[in-house]
Every structure is written in structure tokens, then in C-alpha cells.
């Protein structure tokens, strides 16, 4: 029998629902954890007071959920960019990451920060993608000790070429992890963003499993599992075979069917595929 997975959901699907009510609904539907897009809480982490952080943390606990971490790290404030040749803007952007590390540490223990942010890391200003990638790695290495001190793991996410010119495959993400060499920097696997990978996803996960600390599940078109033809049964079997212990988190990009329908349908489908 496959071991139980810890399923979580990204909170932005609940859109304008008050945070505490969203937490209650998420737990009632059957999820164990909540992953938070920081722009849903405030434009910048500096605007989230210590009191508000405690309130969010308490709402999560009161609902019986675990805090999983943060994703969509750089949606706001607008204009940030972590690989730009503009030294001042780049410094401001990495300062934003430092403030998110603090937020993540304040919200709960062992949180992850999924570092996708395609537009904000894309090679710009005539910089070759390889140079932008190395700049990303060197700047990430500088904040890794701060993440380690807070018990936060920053996860380098591979993104397809139609989203970003920087870090397009899991192998490239792993190369960054190895280069930095910090336990606070790992990678993750996202079924939607692995569309450009050239080997079967199960083989990819097996090959790089020691570096993978998080899973995002969604259909290739960004809808929730069960609305397309992605083979989640094979994915979950592979994770079970490897005795995966971290989170399997639902992230969707199409909210048209409503939060509760999306959350219910996805969880039922994933549990039926185990």
C-alpha cells in the first residue's frame, strides 16, 4: 500500500476569501497544508507587521493546517529583477528575497520558498542567459546563509523556455544547487513547468530525487489534476517508491471553476490515482 502523501494547496486560488476562512475551507476539504503567495497578503513583506504575521500563523494553526512555504515570490512590488545589469535594482530585488526569508521563517517551521519568478530572473539588457544564470547563482549563494539560519529552504524552480531564458531544466536547477552547496538551497518538481523536459518525468525524478524538496501538481495547461491527461498515478507511484516525505502541493493558474470545486476535484483525483 502506498504511504500517505501530505497534500497542500496554494492559497491564491481562494482569491478574495478572507485568510482565516480560506484556511478553514482548505482543511475541511481535506488538505494538510497551505502554501502562500505573499502578494495575497500585502504588496511587500515589509508591510506585514509582526502582529499580522502572528495572526496569519494562528489562523493556520486554528484550522489544523501546517504552513508549507511561499511561492510566486516576486509578483509584487512591481519592477523587481534579480539578474538585471542594473546594480541598484538588483540589490533592491535581492533585499526583497531577504525580507521574504524573514516572512517565511516567521510564518512557520521548515518552510520552503519556491523560486520561479520567470519575468524577474529572465536575461535582460543584452546579457547572455548563461551570464544571467551565473549571476542568479552568485546572488542566491549570498542569501543562503540567512535562509539556513531561519530554517528556510529556497527551491530553484526550472521553467520552460516560453517562460524564462534562465534555468530551463531540472538538470540546470540541480547544477545551481550543487554549485552553491548549501542545505538551504534545493530544487523542486512542477508537472506543469516540466513540459520541455526530454526524458520521462518519472525517470527525471528518480535521477535527481536527492535534490527535490517539493512537488507542485497541475495539468500541463495549468488547470487542476483530473481535468487533463497528465499521468499522476505514475508520478505518485514514483514518489511512493522513493519514499518521498515532503509536500505535494496543488498550484493552478485557472480559477474559473471556483476555489472549492478546484480544491475538491484535484484532491479526489490525486487520492484516486495513488
Fold blueprint:
Layout: E1 6-10, H1 19-29, E2 33-36, H2 50-62, E3 66-70, H3 87-107, E4 112-115, H4 118-121, H5 129-150, E5 153-156, H6 170-180, E6 185-190, H7 201-208, E7 212-217, H8 232-241, E8 247-250, H9 259-273
Parallel strand pairs: 1-2, 1-8, 2-3, 3-4, 4-5, 5-6, 6-7, 7-8
Span between termini: 9 Å
Query: Helix/strand-derived class?
Result: alpha/beta
How would you sum up the global shape? globular
Rounded to the nearest angstrom, the radius of gyration is 18 Å
Helix content: 40-55%
- In DSSP terms, counting alpha (H) and pi (I) runs of 4 or more, how many helices? 9
Number of domain units: 1
Contiguous runs where pLDDT drops below 50 for at least 5 residues:
none
Q: H/E element string?
A: EHEHEHEHHEHEHEHEH
The name of the CATH superfamily reads: Divalent-metal-dependent TIM barrel enzymes
**Strand arrangement across the biggest beta sheet:** 1-2-3-4-5-6-7-8
pLDDT average, as an integer? 96
Biggest sheet record: 8 strands, parallel, barrel
Q: Tell me the total number of β-strands.
A: 8
Query: The CATH topology is what?
Result: TIM Barrel
DSSP strand (E) fraction?
Answer: 5-15%
Proper CATH architecture: Alpha-Beta Barrel
CATH class: Alpha Beta
Word description of this protein:
By secondary structure, the protein is of the alpha/beta class. It has one domain: TIM Barrel, CATH 3.20.20. It contains 9 helices and 8 strands. The chain has an 8-stranded parallel barrel with strand order 1-2-3-4-5-6-7-8, surrounded by 6 helices. Strand 7, helix 8 and strand 8 form a beta-alpha-beta unit. Helix 3 runs parallel beside helix 5 and helix 7 packs parallel to helix 8. The longest helix has 22 residues. It is globular and about 45 Å long. The model has no long low-confidence stretch (mean pLDDT 96).
